Amino acid sequence: MLDKCQKHLDHVHESYFQHLCFASVFGARLIVGGIGAILHGLFPAICQTTGSKTVFALHDELKERMQKQDGQGHG
């Protein structure tokens, strides 16, 4: 298990704590977007674009991040 973790950290060119911070913030943003989507489902007048804007923004950031990693000779 530790070997797999280290291989992943090497692949993304991050330390454990860099990866922990990124993944934690990413996950928190997913949760906020999800809560917005649930609130919109309950009350259609609110949070009308929170879920979709969150998904699109995270997708764009993740795609850009992966392209940077691939540009460093890994792919």
Largest sheet, described in full?
Answer: none
Q: Please report the total strand number as a whole number.
A: 0
Q: In percent, how helical is the residue content?
A: over 70%
Radius of gyration: 16 Å
Domain unit count = 1
Q: What best-fitting shape do the alpha-carbon axes yield?
A: elongated
β-strand amount: under 5%
Low-confidence stretches: none
Structural class computed from helices and strand pairing? mainly alpha
- The ordered string of helix (H) and strand (E) elements is HHH
Overall average residue pLDDT: 92
How far do the termini sit from each other? 22 Å
Number of helices: 3
In words, what does this structure look like?
The protein has one domain (2-70). 79% of the residues lie in helices and 0% in strands. It has helices at residues 2-12, 16-42, 50-70. α2 (16-42) packs antiparallel against α3 (50-70).
What would the keywords be for this entry?
0% strand, 75 residues, mainly alpha
Short description:
With 75 residues, the chain is mainly alpha-helical.
Secondary structure elements and pairings:
Layout: H1 2-12, H2 16-42, H3 50-70
Helix pairs in contact: 2-3
